[in-house]
Specification:
Elements lengths: L3 E9 L3 E3 L21 H6 L3 E5 H9 L10 E4 L14 E4 L3 H10 L4 E5 L1 H9 L5 E7 L7 E2 L10 E9 L3 E8 L2
Parallel strand pairs: 1-6, 1-7, 3-4, 3-6, 4-5
Antiparallel strand pairs: 2-8, 7-10, 9-10
Length: 179
Amino acid sequence: MTKKNSVFIATSIDGYIADKNGGIDWLHSIPNPHKDDMGYAEFINNIDALVMGRTTFETVCEFDVDWPYDKPVFVLSNTLNEIPQSHVGKAFLIKGTLTEIIEQINKKGYYRLYIDGGTTIRNFLKADLIDEMIITTIPILLGGGSSLFTELPNELKFELITTKTYLNQITQCHYKRKK
């Protein structure tokens, strides 16, 4: 089985994934009357499991919708001791180094992983464990907030695979890691 760690995320033009207050309402700043998912369903159909940090997990739990995933969600946390009762069987707490975590998940039969959440993505990038990134850029400048990228120990080269435009304003770039 091919192992692949993928990112699918939206940013502002200035590279933020959340505003100064941690908000993400700006993601809906461009009208989307036909509810175009911008490739999300196709992406999620090609992954086996999700890996996200505690903050992202708690944010998703606060959404006023049913649990949005039908795949296992592995939650990384140094502070969480158990998954809330409402999400037992849907989300699983996992601990260890990123390499150990990937090995644990792979041993369960999940090889194509969706890496989600700012800190988690940044840590996977620092460890050079991201194989592809699909980054959707919303045409807004937030001027601060939670940045998708941070300082890295080494330069990481990616190649552009495709670029798509949605709603005549939103661009999505698919990058693959060059090793």
